[in-house]
């Protein structure tokens, strides 16, 4: 098979409704050069037709783009080597969203779903010389409004209510962290493919035996041909992770057919999540040929791992567990939610994906949840997750709404889910399909969810249950029985918020201004969302705000917080915990980031404590909302749009490290200390407990040997402590003098403390290494320097006699700025 990518020579223009379509496409006026893949906004920006959509309040002035229809056109010649093939097809990997395509004047596609690809035979439409492609993109909002007028307004959270009728990335309608930009255009590649015969599909649903000593790799190959394939053959090769051949097979091919063969591999190299082992990837190569003539070749990478979702009664708590077991090892899933990394999707390059996912790995995460209001991500996203060992919780693309279930909607959705299951099911990183985000929660909140009803869901006020409870599980069972399916997130059967089973979204904190110190009370069997807002880096804000707007409550900065009462809630949490910061933006940013850092730490620390070993997996996951942003904004993200980590990023890195310590009040005058290990062997260590007065006087010191049990939390000690507002407890876990983990317990709220100058010093040991020390207890020590520095740790609690050495990749001679509480 030969292919040519159609990425050059494209033009676009705004549709002129006063002209016929033919006249508009052939007119000479108004055309601009266009990028494919691309969307209209990016080309208008590139051509200088609009200001930067992210700057200031430009979002408001640019809504006209999404309200207009747009034309794309391209002329090209068919290369001779393609003309000689028996079949030539035009392939569109993604059209956003209502698109009609004409090839050489013949209508070939009518698209109404952004998540579908199209493959159209055009052999008989080819012309010698120049061939033309015309695409009309119609504005999505009017289409949704028309359908809404016909079928009714439906309940939802976030965005315009008509979005439920449009199969477009739902966040394009605006969300509580994202702007409204209704994009249109050929957002994924366009290409020509030519062949006499081709491999239409390669599917290898590998299965690892229970004893892990062997794996079966059934290979299914769908062949398409323009004629009988007399004497053709299909060669199958399984390559080991090092590229060497493991085994081969040859199958005869005589016609269009599905060919099958099963390989058995002894002692396979197993694929593990990050932090639990390596990520070796096998490769299956299928070659369709006759003699020396190769018709087509396809390959697929495989990670061989045994996957189970374990839901069983707990020994000491009500309900059931909810944890993933990989290669017979229970996994505590620590990580974050993932949203689309840009409002304008073609701008997210493979390198940008790599930088984002490397940040997740460097933060000791082992799971990302692809949220249901975005997109089925690009292949490169899942390829990188396979390589890096990042487990993927994959929502299907439905979020925060009571979607319709009329026949046309079901037909479109069935095609969408079928196609994306087939595209993604070979990735070892994906460990679950989930039907939606928060749709059950919304339905329950309005009294529209009756779990006992099992009749015709389409006649109820929650009709999309027919998708989540019938269509999707049937498709998953047919196309990908190797993975569990879950109806939604959160979902727990009769009560979507039940903390004793299923997964949970813990939003009681933030939405109600309840103190973040109460996060331990919000534990669930698997917490798949929780979070706290914070400002991004001041440099990120400066990229979208004029200098005179760089103050905490400016019009621009308030505009760049889409959360309901977002600025007020940030101010409320600061007021609860800290003295009101000074007048500078930098001080206010630090205060908001301090609160986020503390909140995330309390949550993960307390929930990971509940990962107690076999039969006591009371909390098996903590996924913070969210890892990333789609534009420069104040949000719940751990890392802002410019890939600058917030202090909470370093907090989550410590809390998800292979070894972590926790300390908390266990009564009025008692504290409890625990440790957590993700290793599969015991760890003998020394626990050091010191009590300091805030003025730097050491009150007490204690050391004792401890043993951390494998792959679980271990309660290390509980003791009486005379706690008051002038003492802080610092604990360390040491092995042969090396510090494996630290934790501390401070009197709160911090606003009541009178902290003396802690005497923090930062000493440069070499070009990229610094040592941080303190003469008295120091809270929230945060270092900044030149842009782009990659700190090994930050946002530190520093105590006398416990210097912390940090690696700062990219550090130059720029002065290091130190902030602290």
UniProtKB/TrEMBL annotation:
Name of protein: Beta-mannosidase B
Pathway: Glycan metabolism; N-glycan degradation
Keyword Hydrolase: yes
Domain Glycoside hydrolase family 2 immunoglobulin-like beta-sandwich residue range list: 198-305
Keyword Transmembrane helix part of the UniProt annotation: no
One Pfam family recorded for the sequence: Ig_mannosidase
Record's subcellular location: Lysosome; Secreted
GO molecular-function terms, A-Z: beta-mannosidase activity
PANTHER family linked to this entry: BETA-MANNOSIDASE (PTHR43730:SF1)
InterPro entries hit by this protein: Beta-gal/glucu_dom_sf, Beta-mannosidase-like_N2, Beta-mannosidase_GH2, Beta-mannosidase_Ig, Galactose-bd-like_sf, GH, Ig-like_fold, Ig-like_GH2
Subunit structure: Homodimer.
Enzyme class, first EC level, given as a word: hydrolase
Catalysis performed (reactions): Hydrolysis of terminal, non-reducing beta-D-mannose residues in beta-D-mannosides
UniProt lineage: Bacteria, Bacillati, Chloroflexota, Ktedonobacteria, Ktedonobacterales
Domain Beta-mannosidase Ig-fold: 755-807
Superkingdom: Bacteria
Native source species: Thermosporothrix hazakensis
Enzyme Commission numbers on file: 3.2.1.25
Gene Ontology CC annotations of this record: extracellular region; lysosome
Family: Belongs to the glycosyl hydrolase 2 family. Beta-mannosidase B subfamily.
Gene3D superfamilies: Galactose-binding domain-like, Glycosidases, Immunoglobulins
Principal place of residence: other
Domain named Mannosidase Ig/CBM-like: residues: 670-752
Keywords: Glycoprotein, Glycosidase, Hydrolase, Lysosome, Secreted, Signal
Beta-mannosidase-like galactose-binding domain residues: 10-188
GO BP terms, alphabetized: carbohydrate metabolic process; glycoprotein catabolic process
